[in-house]
């Protein structure tokens, strides 16, 4: 019997720490349901001490998911651990993940604490967490740059205090695979009570080594990997779940363990996370990129037609590419629509919401005859996006483009319920439309990203637009989708402006104090 490799997904916590990737509670629930279908062992749902909204989102995920362990992050202090315990009260399988930095630079510059104070604080927090659940994880933040002797001391102490999972983070993505593998091996060998905990790793991708480091750790005894869908996460991101899972599955000759992941859900959840966060997946991304299984060169095609193993080491359908199929059309009824959405993990709180979604579906089916799963996901995401603090609402728009004339646009918006019309001219219709929005609602924000993606193929495909606005150090993303990319662009811009105007007082887990 091979060992089990526990998959701990932190898309909803570390993934959400990507600038602009913040998700509403409703979006988190949709993703959590899909993670449960993927058979992820542990879902880190968030950091309840960050804000009342974050607390609420963790509580809702804990209420919804039954099959996966639901984990909440807490800095090593009494308030954070208490809030994590409260948010997890309804969870079927709750886990508290508490952490404190252990590298010399973090202890001195960030915490301003001595190593022994850090050790005491860690032990106190683990003990407190154990009062509300038997499943407690401890992380020495920045372990990759911590002194191995100190790591051994603190980890032995927290295991004695009741930690059941010891997670070793390479917080700044600094280590090399051979070095990280050896670190894991030596911790397991040197810590006297290491057999009483599962060793886990959490690698960041600053040098593009997050997956390589995680796999090196697995080869050296780690039996939990922390990862995110599409490798989303702080700065360059975390180790990507799909790459780790498929590497372990494809190279069973190398790995002494395997996961329980249902890999056929990988591509659909990758699409969902991309659509919710507005972070596109690069075409050449392993496993989930549009080109991952496409063969361009004639020689490759020839080889694949004769025997697919010549150039393919995995089957596209095993990671869910076949799920990308026509599901509904213009004549599909309400029942087929509701059933397909339920299969995608999308449920409605009320009949009114379901009726509204069905009306939007019929609208879309009139413009676009073939409706794919991705279209349905976008239909719901787009609606959720436009509900976030609707200070501004797009009522109608008109854009003019004719050769030899300056493109122009006229936009009607409501601002706090009052209808206003704005006009603009620009270098293209998108530019003109954005100027028209600014004419109605001047904002001193800077547009730092504008990207368009087609959701499915064909010129009638919906375009999904993401924009990122920055103001006084705060970054927000806005999304919009429509069969017309100018309309999608305006929806995305209005959505970002609404988010910028919304309340924001989230505490970042890694930037503030511990006690
Ligand atoms: O990167 C990191 O160190 C973290 C910890 C909170 C585990 O995300
Ligand atoms: Zn992290």
Give the gist of this structure.
The protein is of the alpha/beta class.
Structure description:
There is one protein chain. The chain has helices spanning 25-38, 52-64, 78-87, 104-111, 115-130, 148-161, 177-190, 210-219, 241-250, 266-277, 298-306, 334-343, 351-367, 373-387, 429-440, 485-501; strands at residues 3-4, 6-9, 42-46, 69-75, 94-101, 136-141, 165-170, 198-203, 224-227, 257-258, 326-329, 370-372, 392-400, 408-415, 418-425, 446-454, 463-471, 474-482. With 515 residues, it is of the alpha/beta class. The chain folds into 2 domains: 3-284, Alpha-Beta Barrel (TIM Barrel); 387-501, Alpha-isopropylmalate synthase LeuA, regulatory domain (Double Stranded RNA Binding Domain, 2-Layer Sandwich). Helix 15 packs parallel to helix 16. The longest helix is centred in the C-terminal third of the chain and has 17 residues, at 351-367. It is globular. The structure holds 3-methyl-2-oxobutanoic acid and zinc ion. The site of 3-methyl-2-oxobutanoic acid has 9 residues, from strand 6.
């Amino acid at each position: 019997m091979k060992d089990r490799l526990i998959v701990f997904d932190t898309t909803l916590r570390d993934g959400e720490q990507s600038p602009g990737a913040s998700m509403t509670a409703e979006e988190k629930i949709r993703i959590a349901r899909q993670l449960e279908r993927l058979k992820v062992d542990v879902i880190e749902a968030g950091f309840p001490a960050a804000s009342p909204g974050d607390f609420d989102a963790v509580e809702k995920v804990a209420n919804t998911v039954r099959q996966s362990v639901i984990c909440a992050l807490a800095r090593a202090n009494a308030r954070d651990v208490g809030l994590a315990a409260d948010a997890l009260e309804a969870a079927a399988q709750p886990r508290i993940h508490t952490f404190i930095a252990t590298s010399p630079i973090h202890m001195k510059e960030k915490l301003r604490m001595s190593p022994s104070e850090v050790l005491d604080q860690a032990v106190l927090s683990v003990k407190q967490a154990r009062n509300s659940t038997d499943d407690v994880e401890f992380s020495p933040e920045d372990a990759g740059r911590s002194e191995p002797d100190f790591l051994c001391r603190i980890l032995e102490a927290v295991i004695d205090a009741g930690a059941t999972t010891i997670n070793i983070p390479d917080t700044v993505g600094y280590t090399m695979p051979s070095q990280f593998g050896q670190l894991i091996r030596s911790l397991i060998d040197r810590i006297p009570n290491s057999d009483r905990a599962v060793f886990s790793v959490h690698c960041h991708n600053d040098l593009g080594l997050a997956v390589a480091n995680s796999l090196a750790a697995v080869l050296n005894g780690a039996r939990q990997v922390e990862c995110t869908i599409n490798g989303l996460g702080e700065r360059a991101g975390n180790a990507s779940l799909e790459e780790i899972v498929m590497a372990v599955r494809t190279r069973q000759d190398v790995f002494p363990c395997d996961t329980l992941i249902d890999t056929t859900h990988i591509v659909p959840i990758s699409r969902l996370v991309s659509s919710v966060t507005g972070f596109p997946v690069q075409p050449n991304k392993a496993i989930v990129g549009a080109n991952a299984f496409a063969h361009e060169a004639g020689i490759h095609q020839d080889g694949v037609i004769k025997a697919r193993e010549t150039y393919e080491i995995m089957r596209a359908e095993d990671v869910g590419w076949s799920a990308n199929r026509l599901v509904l059309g213009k004549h599909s009824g309400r029942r087929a629509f509701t059933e397909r959405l339920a299969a995608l993990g999308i449920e409605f709180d009320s009949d009114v919401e379901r009726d509204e979604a069905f009306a939007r579906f019929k609208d879309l089916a009139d413009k676009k005859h073939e409706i794919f799963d991705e279209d349905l996901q976008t239909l719901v995401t787009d609606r959720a996006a436009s509900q976030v603090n609707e200070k501004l609402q797009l009522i109608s728009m008109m854009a003019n483009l004719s050769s030899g004339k300056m493109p122009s646009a006229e936009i009607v918006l409501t601002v706090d319920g009052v209808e206003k019309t704005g006009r603009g001219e620009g270098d293209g219709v998108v530019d003109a439309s954005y100027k028209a929005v600014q004419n109605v609602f001047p904002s001193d924000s800077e547009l730092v990203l504008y990207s368009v993606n087609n959701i499915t193929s064909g010129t009638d495909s919906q375009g999904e637009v993401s924009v990122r606005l920055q103001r006084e150090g705060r970054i927000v993303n806005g999304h919009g989708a429509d069969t017309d990319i100018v309309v999608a662009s305006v929806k995305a811009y209005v959505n970002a402006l609404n988010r910028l105007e919304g309340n924001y007082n989230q505490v970042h887990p890694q930037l503030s104090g511990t006690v």
